[in-house]
Design goal:
The protein has 156 residues and is an alpha+beta fold. It has one domain. Helix content is 41%, strand content 21%. It contains four helices and four strands, in the order αββααββα. The chain has a four-stranded antiparallel sheet. β1 and β2 form a beta hairpin. α1 packs across α4. The radius of gyration is 16 Å and the shape is globular.
Length: 156
Amino acid sequence: MYTREEKKALVREFWKSFDEYCNRDPLLAWRKKKWVLHHTGMNNIDLKFEPGRKSTKVILELNHKDEDRRLEMYERLTHFKPVLEQQLEDELIWSLVYTRSSGEVVSRIYTELTGVDIHRKPDWSRMFAFMAEKMDILQQNFLDLSDFIKDENYEE
């Protein structure tokens, strides 16, 4: 088991190593800003990485506090499913209701690499490769759609 400080240091080292990995990746190194993440241009829609003890995930998350609005955006995204899943066929998991560890209920569209653990440094290279490749695809697919799925009624 790790102490709180050791876990914090491990997580910090993980993200620093991931940044270094991205800076060496020929497809990503030239980009000044590699990931959109929370700056999608739409409120309550985020792109996320979630490395964990049993898996690592690359996520498109809908986190509007108003359940009806969140479900409306999820439904809107299902209409664009073929575009969002380009190069990710049979990989994306569509979860209308997902409960975070904090108890917050969100909707998620994600892909997952299982059998890896952020606490095992030998797993990191597989996690980094997965995260960079899948986020690059998911982010580009989302950005290609963003103008079509924006709706002033959803933004708040």
